[in-house]
Amino acid sequence: MATTTVPKQIGARVRRKEDPRLITGASTYTDDLKLPGMAYCTVLRSPHAHARIASIDTSGAEATKGVLRVVTGRDVQEAIGGLPVAHKIEGLLEPPHRVLAIDEVRYVGDGVAAVVAEDPSTARDALERIEVEYEELEAVVDVEKAAAGGPFVHEELGTNVAFTFPFEAGDVDGAFQDAPVVLRQRIVNQRQIPFAVEPRAVAARFDRGHRKLEIWSSTQIPHLLRTQLSVMLGIPEHSVRVIAPEVGGGFGSKLNVYAEEALVGHLARELGRPVKWTATRTEGFQATIHGRDQLADVEIAASEDGVLHGMRVKLLQDLGAYHQLLTPVIPTLTVLMLPGAYRLRNLQVELKGVFTDKTPTDAYRGAGRPEANFIIERVLDLIADATGIDPIEVRRRNFFPADAFPADTCTGLTYDSGNYQAAVDLLLETVDYDALRREQAQRRERGELMGIGVACYVEICGLGPSAALPAGGWEACTLEVRRTGRVVVKTGVSPHGQGEETTFSQIVADALGVGLNDVEIAHGDTDYVPEGIGTFGSRAQAVGGAALSMALEDVRDKSRKIAGHLLEADPEDVVFDEGKLHIRGAPDRAVGFQDVVTAAYMADDLPEGVEPGLASTRFFEPSNFTFPFGVHLCVVDIDPDTGEPSIRRYVAVDDCGNVINPMIVDGQIHGGVAQAIAQSLYEQAVYDADGQLVTGSLMDYAVPRASYLPSYELRRTTTPTPVNPLGAKGVGEAGTIAGNPCVMNAVVDAVSHLGIRHVDMPATPEKLWRIITERD
Amino acid sequence: MNTSVSIAVNGTPHDSRIEPRLLLVHYLRDVLGLTGTHVGCETSLCGSCTVLLDGRAVKACTVLAAQADGAEVTTIEGLADGDELHPLQEAFWEEHGLQCGFCTPGMIMAAHQLLEDHPDPSEAEIRHGLEGNLCRCTGYQNIVRAVRRAADAMGAASS
Ligand code: FES
Ligand code: FES
Fold first, then answer.
1. What local confidence, expressed as pLDDT, does residue A725 receive?
2. DSSP label at A32?
3. Which ligand is the nearest neighbour of the Cα of A278?
4. Predicted local distance difference test score (pLDDT) of residue B71
5. Mind spelling out the 3-state secondary structure of A554-576?
6. Rounded CA gap, B124 and A457, in Å?
7. Mutating which of B108, B141, B144, B145 best tests the A interface, going by the most A Cβ atoms within 10 A?
8. What contacts B130, CB < 8 A, 6 or more positions away?
9. Under a CB-based contact definition with an 8 Å cutoff, are residues A372 and A287 in contact?
């Protein structure tokens, strides 16, 4: 944004303002809340993937001392509406999704009954005294079989296919006709478990005096949750207050509306006592959304010089048993982003969303875009392999050139700005690529396995124009300069680790010339911050920060008017400078910012037509998404005896537009790449043939520990976006989007001389050992 | 049947009557209201609940409060010296060793143990020393840097 003085805070590595409370244990997460008279809720969950509920007997639990209430799906079906799905997909089948199952359970973890008791251990013990008789039904587990026919997850639908989403651009048949290079590959994005370290938690209190329901939830979207809870519980939206206190990570898993949020709200209202529910880790695995789980059959048409001319993609998205908030929307983002950084013109996609008896899938860091980027970046490597052209050169030949921006993709997107070759150039300055290739050749001769993987990416960030989102894509900000000079920012974004209390303070400090500690960032309370959308889709800075910039412009304009009046000068000539406003070129003719603030509130000497006070509320509606990009490279060694892969070097070049705080941006890349390495080498949610979640605990699901991961070398190019006044694009998901193909291209490269063209994720030692020994 | 325990937490003695099956982590959080120690799992695998028991890092979800009878416990709330942050807290702040902060108290306590065992740890020793603690946000890199920085600060202070 336009600052008249040189930015001092924007772009600086500033320590985070939120940290002092977090490193001293002084922060309050939802489960830390203890309200007077609080009761505790637990949920009984289905042990079966698919079963009819023949009977439920709650009498044993009800008779337990200390138990206040036991409810089943039938008990609450009148009081609590179904769980919402927000989408714009034509013809989507939407079977009912109740907060507690009625008659039938459809995944292991589906809620069946809830208990409220005086203390958590009584509530837990009482669950065991609920007798449920199940008649098991055949579980729908395999997504391909589910797509082809019965049995059905929702019998009444007569199909498991919730929607089909066909897409076609260009002349695909023409591209394939006579194409010298035609390749086919199945590419799978396996199911992931998001695993925010803070388990989900909800607390609720009904304020009888004000007839208001207050909900604390570990959510990324307090405002959207407020609206949905009002609908589900049948109470006016203004009678619902949602507070997202400290939230311990989300990665998309808390970008949702969950059964327990409505259930606990309802029970608190009914009992007239505060109620809290905290997920166990098992519930975190079973009853919090999963991510990815997409199967792609890809056909590729390319020329001998490595240019991609056409793709046909058949996509099957495993939706799980029900729609959660954005379940069907996620794979449609995959379709949009399939062209990646490349001038692909001919593309045919057939996407099917398919119900199975598993935990619902939804947004997991990257949400549809890692899937797309994994496909297209594997495709480029397959072309490189088939044509014998170096992977980096193949990418260069297919890039949108720097002068193509704004660049239209065949999927109808307009990439705002970019310079993909510049990112590659910086990578090649950082890494001696030719030396790595020479080393690889030497090692191969000695029987060692070394792979070099390169992957580019374009991601879709700054979500987004309201027309493109199911529930508004704007963001809101109220900026108030209090009479003491304290600046209060009320933002609709809801950070949970991203550091906006710091970065927004940096933006304010530069715009108003105040200190970082004079600024207070309020978020996550719908009564204090009346409107907002939330934190997801790498939008906090690009959309929320942009709304802040607009409000700052208002306050600056008004301050200049007041200062001009006090200085008897034209407001146009007044500039901000470290706590002062002075006449351009005459730093001595100045008033302090505090003098302006005081004048605004004393209001006895304001210029004509200027109202008292100093505040502004603005909404920013982005005209487009933003499209960050970059290129990552990694070097992987595979132990030929054990198959164990290890990442020796990981270099990331990222361009997320203008950077407010490089330390925070780097941290986002670190965390994102770690999650990509997790998917590439370690994590996979596995269901057995009966629909049991085999990887239902930290013993079986391999969330990486510090020793599994390398250090990353980060570089940056800066191509600002014209879409918002900050020029910032967003960075939250970049690492996850770039990382999978980068690691997997390296893994495949390490064994390509054995005739291997593709390896499925996760590339576990066992899988690699089999590949190596079978080819020997 | 309740049992009596006497536990000194962050230097303050507490005499409490508790249920024998009460875990130390719930004693700290629910009985004493020290909610800086977090719970992230029920399988002793995340490390969010790490505290110092008589100076040694333990996962407070694996210890009964009754087992801590007569012991001294230090939680994240007791690590700073008044307003003066512990070098580990300073280092986590300076190196951006936390994002959401949920794993942080446990991570800092585990790092405390690590530096006691290895006052001058290599990167590999730091990564192995923190194996019992999961962080989903940071990718660990800045946590490793923070622990190294704290080692330097503490080494400089003691030499
Ligand atoms: S709470 Fe996870 S190890 Fe103690
Ligand atoms: S900072 Fe969020 S889990 Fe470590």
1. 87
2. G
3. 1
4. 97
5. HHHHHHHHHHHHHHCCCHHHEEE
6. 31
7. B141
8. A705, A706, A707, B47, B107, B110, B111, B114, B140, B143, B144, B147
9. no
DSSP H or E segment with residue A645? strand A645-655
* A15–B35 CB contact, under 8 Å: no
Whose tokens are 């010298």? That residue is A180
pLDDT value at position A492?
Answer: 83
| Ligand at shortest distance from the CA of A498 | 2
Look at residue A485 and tell me if it is in a domain. yes
Q: Is residue A747 over pLDDT 60?
A: yes
Q: Is the CB of B47 under 6 A from ligand 1?
A: yes
Write the pLDDT tens digit of every residue in A688-734.
999 999 999 999 999 999 999 999 999 999 999 998 888 889 888 99
* Token duo for residue A527: 């009564």
Q: Does residue A480 sit in the same domain as residue A605? A: yes
Average of per-residue pLDDT values in chain A = 95
Task: Note whether A662 contacts B: Cβ–Cβ < 8 A.
Answer: no
Confidence class of residue A3 from pLDDT cuts 50, 70 and 90? Answer: very low
Q: What band does B145 get if pLDDT is binned at 50, 70 and 90?
A: very high
In the predicted structure, residue B143 carries a pLDDT above the cut 60: yes
Q: Is the dihedral of CA A356, A359, A362, A365 positive or negative?
A: negative
CA–CA separation, A705 vs A709, rounded Å?
7
Instruction: Tell me, yes or no, whether A628 and A614 share the same domain.
Output: no
Q: pLDDT tens across A608-652, in order?
A: 999 999 999 999 888 888 999 999 999 999 999 999 999 999 999
Q: Best mutation site among B46, B51, B136 for ligand 1, i.e. most ligand atoms within 8 A of its Cβ?
A: B46
CATH of the domain at A207: 3.90.1170.50
Distance CA A337, CA A345 (A): 13
pLDDT of residue A533: 84
At the top level of CATH, which class does the domain B87-158 belong to? mainly alpha
Which ligand 2 atom is the nearest neighbour of the CA of A197? 3
Given a contact cutoff of 8 angstroms between Cβ atoms, the answer to whether A63 and A149 are in contact is no
3-state secondary structure string across B9-26: ECCEEEEEEECCCCEHHH
Where residue A640 falls (left for φ over 0; alpha for ψ -120 to 50; beta otherwise) is: alpha
pLDDT digit string, tens, across residues A398-448? 999 999 999 999 999 999 999 999 999 999 999 999 999 999 999 999 999
B136 touches ligand 2 (CB under 6 Å): yes
Average pLDDT over residues A82-87: 95
Query: Which residues of chain A are within 8 Å of residue B83 when distances are taken between CB atoms?
Result: none
Class of domain B3-78: alpha beta
- Beta-carbon count within 10 A of A152 CB: 19
Bridge pairing between strands A346-355 and A308-320: parallel
> Is residue A120 in contact with ligand 2, taking CB distance under 6 Å?
no
Residue A638 is part of a domain; what is its CATH number?
A: 3.30.365.10
Q: A736 is in which domain, residue-wise?
A: 291-464+624-775
For A546-581, what is each residue's pLDDT tens digit? 999 999 999 999 999 999 999 999 999 999 888 899
Q: Read out DSSP for B48-109?
A: TTEEEETTEEEETTSSBGGGGTT-EEE-GGGTSBTTB--HHHHHHHHTT--SS-SSHHHHHH
Q: What local confidence, expressed as pLDDT, does residue A494 receive?
A: 84
Cα A444 → chain centroid: 40
CB of B30 less than 8 A from some CB of A: yes
Ligand 1 centroid–CA B38 distance in Å is 8
Residues 6+ apart with CB under 8 A from A568: none
pLDDT at B1: 67
The helix/strand count (H/E) of chain A reads as 20, 28
- Locate the ligand 1 atom nearest the alpha carbon of residue B132 and give its number: 3
Task: Give the pairing type, strands A212-217 and A240-243.
Answer: parallel
DSSP A682: I
Contact B100 A195 (CB under 8 A): no
